[in-house]
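>> received
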Amino acid sequence: MVGSMRCGVCCTDALGWRVVRARWATCLPSAFDSVIFANPEDFGNPYLRRGFRTFAKQLAMRRAVRSLAGRVDRVIVASNGEAGFLPLRSAAQTMIYGDASHRQLNDLYRFNRPEAKLRNRERQMRRLAAHGAHFVGMSRWCSAGFEQDYQVVECATIGPPMDTGLFPAQPPRSQVRRVLFVGGDFKRKGGEDLLAVAAQFSELQFDIVSPGAPEQLPPNVLRHIGVGPQSPELLARYANADAFVFPTHADCSPLAVLEAQASGLPVLCTSVGGLGDMVSDGVHGWVFSPGDRAALHAALAESVAQPEVAASVGQAGRQRVERENALAVHAVRWRTIAETMKP
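>> returned
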């Protein structure tokens, strides 16, 4: 690392970004001389109460970034969804981090947003890119979307930060008997597919950590509600599991998969969004298409029948996280990008 450098962070409080922000508070100070957080929710405005939610969030993010003027050398903005009104004057010192472009998110989640709205968002991002803003994707899939939709010449990629100390790897399992699912939006994340398949594996115990799980469940399925991110109960669920199943229909770069890998669990998941960066079929687990219950059944049956393979892919997942997502690695990558930017 060359020279001194101060970094500002403006990160939305939504969904998994809250966890990312907390992990940044732990790891970024090791890579920068100082780190200042300016949370956009502290710069709210009346428009939020009038129904203009997108405009309000973008304006709050702009105010947060402007509050750092003269105090930092670089600013990390997360996410691109709130970056539309960022000051063009300081764009060249800004690193915009996201998990999907607006169009990717629309197509993946089937939001059916008007084409005019998508183009307007893309014009905002292209203007920032033209003024020197650096875009950083959470996955190669996301980075490709930034390059295509925002006309970014070259987009860097940094996977989500992962606290490997908080989720320590467990000893290799001699058999798969307890299966874990973690997901807030139960239906979108494939919970219904999992329940249909779970009923066919009476010898297995399934733990469902989701507020959306139904109350009526098969005898071998337990529902856990009120479990917060990184809470002791959640950590215990990972520690007690033998495999992690995530048959999601729409996701970008889910942190739950990283947490499972950090815990040394074999992962059975679908091939959507940025999951391709996390799980390679046959290397870190089993990968199948969304909604393919037969493939999910086959993958689960194979993990039970071949515990040595399950243990091996679980260990490979842990090694991948240590190599690509560990806090120290993550922080150094941000510093490297910051140093390549023009002053």
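>> The first strand starts at residue 6 and ends at 11.
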